[in-house]
Amino acid sequence: MHTIQFLGAYWYNRPQTLTQCVQQLAAFLVALQQHNAQLYGNWFEKAPSKQAALLKPVQLDYSSVLQVFPKNAGEASLPETSFRVGLWNGARKEQEAIQLSVALGSRETKYFPNNCLIRLRESIAAQAFYAEKANIAELEHLLRRAWQPEWLVLQ
After folding, report:
1. pLDDT reading at 2 higher than 70
2. Is 110's pLDDT higher than 90?
3. Please, what is the end-to-end C-alpha distance for the chain in angstroms?
4. Which residues are paired to 84 by β-bridges?
5. Ordered alpha helix ranges (H), the chain
6. What is the mean pLDDT of residues 112-127?
7. What angle do CA 55, 61, 66 make, to 5 degrees?
8. Which residue, 9, 10, 33, 125, is most buried by CB atoms nearer than 10 A?
9. Domain named Immunity protein: which ranges (predicted)?
10. Mean pLDDT score of the chain, rounded to an integer?
């Protein structure tokens, strides 16, 4: 059986405004939900505790996704390094938790500051779904289409 616990897409120098980053992340979240609603149908903003995070649901529309980005940024602003966002799927059991982290909008050229990271950990549902090679290939394609990364890592 093929198992994956981590996926990372990385890319250089792609300056984007806050508006562009929000639109791109919202579209990616919708694509993930369409890929597998059980795994990716619910998102919550990361917080100091699970209880606090469950009070911060993220809908898959522009205005809701905008709320998870830094509050002090204007919609036309470019980040100094990147806009960073962390989401969690709201799983009650730790072994079903999925985390999504993105860093978007950077114009850095030396490192990989723009990225999309998905941590599946030991999610039984994810491992069962991705036991099918076709589902892994579809997720890979989704990441490539959404972010056009220079480098993609699956572990």
Report:
1. no
2. no
3. 13
4. 103
5. 18-35, 37-40, 50-54, 62-66, 124-129, 133-147
6. 91
7. 70
8. 9
9. 6-153
10. 92
